[in-house]
């Protein structure tokens, strides 16, 4: 009984915004057992603001919009794109995890995978500074002016966050499915390879069809 109470107290102290970085498995278990889908959606909604802002690179079609309007659009779209993206990844990892006898449910994977949005919160201030100080260098692929310092910093941080997010994702899938990290890694790798080849095949088919019509 004392062990149970001690475990409960430890879980109450878990702060997903901090513990996700170094303890993804412990945080995933906390999310699965203690938090609701609503809290998971909150994490996704905040984190995907960073995802959308980082996706502004070379988006020249948006360059004439006010930075404030772009920020507003990002805030509105973040929960929509985040829920769709996380729901899709949860479905894929749920299905392919069964190949390795994973025991996680779809709901558990969705709540756990919401943690992967947390690192992208770090990107928000960097891309906001870039957007407001030098929108041309951010969104114009043909920008030929002087390169702002924020470009190098934002690029470096984005690279680190991207890699760390993959590490967290592996830990989340491993904990949710109760499988090893290597099995979790292949749970993510196998569908990625399949989708890659499907895209290649689709591109080849499209070029073939276009070639027929151009003859």
UniProtKB/TrEMBL annotation:
The UniProt record lists the keyword Cell division: no
Pfam families: Yip1
Transmembrane segments: 37-57, 69-97, 109-130, 150-173, 185-213
Topological type in the membrane: Multi-pass membrane protein
InterPro entries given in the database record: Yip1_dom (IPR006977)
Highest taxon above the source species: Bacteria
Keywords: Membrane, Transmembrane, Transmembrane helix
Domain (Yip1): residue spans on this chain: 19-201
Cell location: Membrane
Protein's UniProt name: YIP1 family protein
Organism: Lysinibacillus xylanilyticus
């Amino acid at each position: 009984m004392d062990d149970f109470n001690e475990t409960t107290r430890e879980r109450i102290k878990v702060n997903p915004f901090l513990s996700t970085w170094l303890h993804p498995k412990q945080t995933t278990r906390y999310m699965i057992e203690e938090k609701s889908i609503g809290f998971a959606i909150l994490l996704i909604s905040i984190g995907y603001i960073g995802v959308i802002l980082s996706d502004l690179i070379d988006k020249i079609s948006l360059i004439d919009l006010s930075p404030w309007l772009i920020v507003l659009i990002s805030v509105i779209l973040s929960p929509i794109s985040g829920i769709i993206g996380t729901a899709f990844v949860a479905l894929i990892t749920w299905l392919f995890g069964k190949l390795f006898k994973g025991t996680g449910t779809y709901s558990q994977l969705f709540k756990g995978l919401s943690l992967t949005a947390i690192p992208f919160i770090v990107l928000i201030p960097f891309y906001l500074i870039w957007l407001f100080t030098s929108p041309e260098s951010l969104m114009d692929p043909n920008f030929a002016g002087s390169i702002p310092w924020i470009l190098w910093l934002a690029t470096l941080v984005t690279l680190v966050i991207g890699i760390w997010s993959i590490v967290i994702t592996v830990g989340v899938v491993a904990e949710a499915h109760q499988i090893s990290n290597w099995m979790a890694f292949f749970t993510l790798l196998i569908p990625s390879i399949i989708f890659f080849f499907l895209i290649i095949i689709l591109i080849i088919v499209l070029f073939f069809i276009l070639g027929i019509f151009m003859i």
